[in-house]
Design a protein that fits this description.
Cupin_1; 25% strand; RmlC_Cupin_sf; three-stranded antiparallel sheet; Jelly Rolls; Seed_Storage-Functional; four-stranded antiparallel sheet; signal; 2 domains; Cupin type-1 domain-containing protein
Length: 189
């Protein structure tokens, strides 16, 4: 029950952030800085006559419209695939040894406009054989650790002490930015 509540709170938080980011994206679409700059430069050209300035502004608007159509076209081809389903090809292996591997999901924003608002997030998977220890690693951003299968000990190394947490299937834990972390797989296999 506790795990379901935590998962619900995290999902609610992600949805709230997604909606806020989508509304920011819509506001940014209305005020394209590239178009604004182009139109401003047309108005600042002293050697242009009024008709030249109008032609320059129309040229800016045509360019902006073509760019917007191209982006929408690219977005529809990306959205033809389900943007929430990822295959093995979508992951890059960052580290692989005989004891396990670490894989990173390619940028979310390449999949769909719907996911662009969470482009600052990454998904990392770690698979490790039984009794595997990972050397301490510095996390420079917040992380959420979720144990999909197995049992793990997560160690948070601080200046004066090390906190150890035992996690099992379905457990979730937040790690703050600036923390040194190590993992131990406690399973036999």
């Amino acid at each position: 029950m506790k795990t379901k509540l935590v998962l619900f709170i995290i999902l609610l938080s992600l949805c709230t952030n997604l909606l806020a980011a989508l509304s920011r994206d819509e506001e940014q679409e209305e005020e394209d800085p590239e178009l604004t700059t182009c139109m401003h430069q047309c108005g600042q050209q002293q050697q242009y006559s009024k008709s030249d300035k109008r032609a320059c502004v129309r040229s800016c608007e045509r360019y902006h419209q073509m760019k917007k159509e191209r982006e929408e076209e690219e977005g529809t081809t990306m959205e033809n695939q389900n943007p929430y389903v990822f295959d093995n090809e979508d992951f890059r292996t960052r580290l692989e040894t005989q004891d396990g591997r670490v894989r990173v999901l390619n940028k979310f924003s390449r999949r769909s406009k719907l996911i662009k608002s969470i482009s600052n997030y990454i998904l990392v998977t770690m698979e490790a054989k039984g009794h595997t220890f990972t050397s301490p690693t510095y996390f420079d951003s917040d992380a959420v650790i979720f144990v999909l299968k197995g049992r793990a000990v997560i160690g948070l190394v601080r200046e004066d002490k090390t906190d150890r947490f035992n996690l099992e299937d379905g457990d979730m834990m937040r790690v703050a930015a600036g923390t040194v972390v190590y993992f131990v797989n406690k399973n036999e296999n």
